[in-house]
Amino acid sequence: MSMRWVTYILLILILYPKVNLGQNAADSIPAKCLNKEYIKSYFSDVKPLIISPSKWERNDWIIAGTVAGSTALAFVFDEEIGRFSQRNRTHFLDQSNVYFFDPFGKMYYTVPFMGALYVYGLASKKSKPKVVALDFVKASFYSGVIITGIKHLSHRHRPFQTNPTNSMLWDGPITDNWHHTSFASGHTIMAFTFASVLATHYSDRLWIPVLAYSVAGLSGLARIYDNKHWTSDVIVGAALGYAVGKWVVKNNRYCRFSLDASYGNNFTGLSLKYKLL
User: What is the pTM of this model?
Assistant: First the structure.
């Protein structure tokens, strides 16, 4: 069995929903989320996503300022950090990058995992796995569009494309070489999009956000280690992936009503409610 399939199986087992075998139980008719509203939301949510900074609160601006300051500081040390990573390469880290971190950033693991999660939601008639998977698809789409636009507006040279090492080579939007796409990191934005969606939905289980963001962070560091990106590329990619994932989950408004049936020793009841999972 290949390492890729082992990873799929482990991820599914780790996030397999808990079963409540107590006296009080609930069976729910799952919300219908893959509907016209979901498809339309890809277009109708574009404007709210673009203008979302206008609705930021104080804490949001503090985070944005921290990211901007970290990126500016990284610009100063991009070359030095790059040289340090190349001086400290090992066989173990090379293999880890080849077989896990690079495929993770390319979504070779995350897409099949989310597909399996959606199928599980259908089979078990549970809403949450389906909502998580659909939010991931939507957030990944937005992240892909955003990162592609930034890359081709900046056309920054990658570390391995410069000799001697020079982190300040930017061609701008008009260039004859479209292969200079260092800023920002596409692998990192996709890794953090996955982590952000997963962590936001499963925020009640602390170990899931910790694990998700840790793997995403290591994937970003692997891009520096592999000499494919500067540190500043990774910081911006991580911030964008985090922000897009959180925004999509927070603004999920396409799941329909669900009917819940509850029973126990002394009661039986039905409730109709709108679920935003």
Answer: 0.83
